[in-house]
Amino acid sequence: MQFDVEIGTLSQWSGDGIIVTVFQDEPLSGAAAQVDHALGGEIQRALDNKEFSARYTLHFAFYSMGTLPAARVAVVGLGKRDKHKLDRARRAAADGVKDLRKLGAKRVALTVPAEGLDLAKAAQATAEGIVMGLFRFQKYFTAAADALWEDDFRNELESVTILVNDASQLETVRAAVERGRILGEANNFARTLANEPGNKMTPLLLAEQARAMADKNGLEFYVIDRDKAAELGMGAFLGVAQGSQNPPAMIVMRYWGDPSSKEGGVGLIGKGITFDSGGISLKPADGMENMKGDMSGGAATIAAMQAIAQLKPHVNVTGIVAAAENMPGGNAFKPGDILRAMNGMTIEINNTDAEGRLVLADAVAYATKELKLSPVLDAATLTGAIVVALGIYRTGVFSNDDELADTLYEIGERTGEKNWQMPMDEEYLLAIRSDWADLKNSGGRPGGAITGAWFIRQFVEKGAKWAHLDIAGAAGIGEAKERGYINKWGNGTPTRTFVEFVLQSANGKG
Ligand code: BES
Ligand code: MN
Ligand code: ZN
Predict the structure, then answer these.
(1) Would you list the domain boundaries of the chain?
(2) Atom of ligand 1 nearest to the CA of 293
(3) pTM value?
(4) Would you name the residues annotated as active-site residues?
(5) What's the pLDDT tens digit per position in 90-102?
(6) Candidate from 283, 349, 382 with most ligand 1 atoms within 8 A of CB, to mutate
(7) What is the pLDDT of residues 43-66, one digit of tens each?
(8) What is the CATH superfamily name and number for domain 187-506?
(9) Quick check: CB of 441 below 6 Å from ligand 1?
(10) What burial class does residue 474 get, using C-beta atoms within 10 Å of its C-beta: 0-12 exposed, 13-18 middle, 19+ buried?
């Protein structure tokens, strides 16, 4: 799909479809009023009759039957003007392009709903929404699917034209649309990796994908394999991996945007469990298939590194993905086993299903002790407990630095990947005290997301700033509905948060 930015008017644009955005509780104006005029006032009539309220998230589309040069029209409600924000522009654009695609359109146009917003930011959000909204994962559908199921899944848009009023806006909007495209495509890359089934996305296959991305985008790349991990003392990471026939991979991608700095810079870390069966502490069968997405944090990390390489901020960034498969087997680690992590701490295993924190323990230690990275963000589908606490609409943020947590909150309000800081009172740490080792890996059900975060925090080297993003709900790898630019399953969170954070760090605001 190609983006064009041109001067023009929706009512005069001839193509397959146009998207008209409408505010709630006010008469049509601007482009919407012009299109409505050509339609003989049908949209205004629908508003007057309360057949369409223009509430945010409501939308519909129809064929224009020769009334307009464009053959199809999508009308998208933006909600009330005083509540307009970037994420509404993002979602409106997604709903519009999806409606037109459903009607068979290939070439569509829209304007940026930038009312009250910064034009560049709104244009970027619009492009992000379009790219993400059009994402579908259907590489495993064959011709048999066409014969079996009645659906629109073959039609693809060829071009999206963003119309601006005058020449003074062209350059700003073109640059912003390009940024939005990069972010949207990175997000979709994360989705693709997460959607791949466990048999097609083992740790080594994930590493191969990351290597291809790194080679293409000029990033330094290496993999810490089983032998090298043993040499480094990564006993927690290796403990999780030992029950699987598929060897683990600690994937490292490095971007050197500030060669003058001797510091490694920002660290982005992702949990990369390519399938989480629970291990010997086996999960129940119902919903276990969702655990192919237990590498969603790792997918977002790889995808964010792609966008960072393309956007070229003036800062050093290292992405690390702790990739392993958690399986039961003759050689699997067991409840009662004691592992030694890279930082020397010993861990009693009381539940092999609390494996994410184990692979992250060594990744975080490697990042903060060996590579001396700070600040370090880790993203992980870590606990069912965070899904209970926050549901699917917000990521739980745990940090040793309140300012860092605040920054992530603010970024989330703009990217739509909403974050919420969770408490880390010392009392919660008691839950992971062990009778046999320094720590045990599961603190049980009460405050499960908090005790998980406390566990990871033990492996952060002194002085490093750290935040942990529990995305078990927000990454959308369970029951969820498609909504705007957010697809039904495996939505790519927190790819854009990671990228935004790095861009802000480069601007000295991080
Ligand atoms: N990958 C799961 C967490 C998860 C659950 C992610 C649901 C997405 C949806 C994680 O490895 C896990 O099994 N966590 C356990 C931890 C417990 C044993 C302390 C959990 O949440 O039950
Ligand atoms: Mn688990
Ligand atoms: Zn897991």
Answers:
(1) 2-164, 187-506
(2) 8
(3) 0.98
(4) 283, 357
(5) 999 999 999 999 9
(6) 382
(7) 999 999 999 999 999 999 999 999
(8) Zn peptidases (3.40.630.10)
(9) no
(10) buried
